[in-house]
């Protein structure tokens, strides 16, 4: 396998575009740039793996032309091995697939890493950490879902904090841990203290009038709670 890309500076807040104004994607991205966001989290949903539809590679590709921000693609789709090339071609920097959708993810990781991008594996709240055993050392990021995937604006599932600790123990310090769902000022400190470094946040940014202060507040809380 080729070497994965360098890690970003952490803590990193990753705004989830699922919660932005889809009618004004370009201006939402410009607002996030002005708010000092460094990454965009793209929630790709196929209406099959999850009971919701969002956008796909064609939309992401067109927005790739409009910003230099890091693209973090979260593929909530069935059979990601079939589609991963599209997301690499679209210019995604991190491509995360779900273990529930891809029981043998190693060939997919290889493809992502060979393209010079970061490979991620996500797990749903009910999926045990031990199901990721074969991924240790083979991927760059583990995304712990702290809500059931499919929708923004859900309540953080408290048991996710212990799950993050378990992921950290299994993967060691080289693998980035991202947490996704219900993250905001009330929950970010505990997941940061548990070992998470990337914090996906939808409602807690897009429901606020000032994206910059929402991002800054969470960054400061996460940094203050770091292990
Ligand atoms: O992947 C998902 C949902 O499936 C997330 O990325 C959510 O979109 C995060 O939204 P909030 O819970 O922060 O509102
Ligand atoms: Fe997500």
Automatic annotation (TrEMBL):
Source organism: Planctomicrobium piriforme
GO molecular function, one term: D-ribulose-phosphate 3-epimerase activity
Pfam families referenced in this protein's UniProt entry, alphabetically: Ribul_P_3_epim
InterPro entries: Aldolase_TIM, Ribul_P_3_epim, Ribul_P_3_epim-like, RibuloseP-bd_barrel
EC annotation from Swiss-Prot or TrEMBL: 5.1.3.1
Keyword GTP-binding assigned: no
Binding-site list for a divalent metal cation: 41, 43, 74, 180
Described function: Catalyzes the reversible epimerization of D-ribulose 5-phosphate to D-xylulose 5-phosphate.
Entry cofactors: Fe(2+); Mn(2+); a divalent metal cation; Zn(2+)
Active site: 43, 180
Classification via Gene3D superfamilies: Aldolase class I (3.20.20.70)
A GO biological-process term: pentose-phosphate shunt
CDD domains noted in UniProt: RPE (cd00429)
Listed name of the protein: Ribulose-phosphate 3-epimerase
Cofactor note: Binds 1 divalent metal cation per subunit.
Substrates-to-products reaction catalysed: D-ribulose 5-phosphate = D-xylulose 5-phosphate
Keyword Isomerase tagged: yes
Keyword entries, A-Z: Carbohydrate metabolism, Cobalt, Isomerase, Manganese, Metal-binding, Zinc
GO CC terms in record: cytoplasm
Residues involved in substrate binding: 16, 74, 150-153, 180-182, 202-203
Family according to the record: Belongs to the ribulose-phosphate 3-epimerase family.
Record pathway: Carbohydrate degradation
């Amino acid at each position: 396998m080729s070497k994965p890309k360098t890690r970003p500076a952490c803590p990193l807040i990753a705004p989830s575009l699922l919660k932005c104004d889809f009618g004004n994607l370009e201006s939402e991205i410009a607002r996030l740039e002005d708010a000092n966001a460094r990454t965009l989290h793209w929630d790709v949903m196929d209406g099959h793996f999850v009971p919701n539809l969002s956008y796909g590679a064609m939309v992401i590709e067109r927005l790739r032309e409009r910003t230099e921000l890091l693209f973090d693609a979260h593929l909530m789709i069935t059979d990601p091995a079939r589609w991963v090339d599209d997301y690499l071609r679209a210019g995604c920097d991190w491509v995360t697939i779900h273990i529930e959708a891809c029981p043998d993810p190693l060939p997919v990781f290889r493809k992502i890493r060979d393209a010079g991008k970061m490979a991620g594996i996500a797990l749903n709240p009910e999926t045990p950490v031990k199901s990721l055993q074969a991924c240790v050392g083979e991927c760059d990021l583990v995304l712990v879902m702290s809500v059931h995937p499919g929708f923004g604006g859900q309540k953080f599932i408290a048991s996710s904090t212990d799950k993050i600790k378990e992921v950290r123990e299994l993967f060691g310090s080289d693998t980035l841990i991202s947490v996704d769902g219900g993250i905001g000022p009330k929950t970010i400190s505990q997941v940061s203290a548990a070992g998470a470094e990337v914090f996906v946040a939808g409602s807690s940014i897009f429901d606020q009038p000032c994206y910059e202060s929402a991002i800054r507040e969470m960054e400061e809380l996460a940094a203050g709670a770091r292990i």
